[in-house]
Amino acid sequence: MSSPQPCSRPSLEELKIRLGEIYDLQRASAVLSWDQQTYMPKGGAAARGEQRATLSGLIHQRSTDPRLGELIARLEEENSPLDPEQDDHAMVRMARRTYERNRRIPEELIRQLTLKTSLAREAWVEARAASVPGRSLFGHFAPYLTEVVRLKREQSEALGYPESPYDAHLDYFEPGLLASQAAILLDRLAEGLRPLVEAITASSIQIETTFLEDVRDGEKQWAISLEILQAIGYDFQRGRQDRSAHPFTTAFSGGDVRITNRLSSRLETPLFTALHEGGHALYHFGIPCRLERSNLASGSSYGLHESQSRLWENLVGGSRPFWAFWFPRLAKAFPERLATVSEDSFYRAVNAVRPSPIRVEADEVTYNLHIVLRFQLEQALLEGRLAVKDLPSAWNEGMVRLLGVMPRDDAEGVLQDVHWSSGQFGYFPSYALGNLLAVQFFNCALHDLPGLNSSGSTGGLIARGEYAPLRQWLHDRIHSWGGKLLPDELVRKVIGGPIDSQPFLDYLWDKYAPLYGLQRPPAKRSGLKISHLGGE
Question: For residue range 451-476, what is the model confidence (pLDDT) as tens digits?
Answer without folding.
Answer: 998 654 457 999 999 999 999 999 99
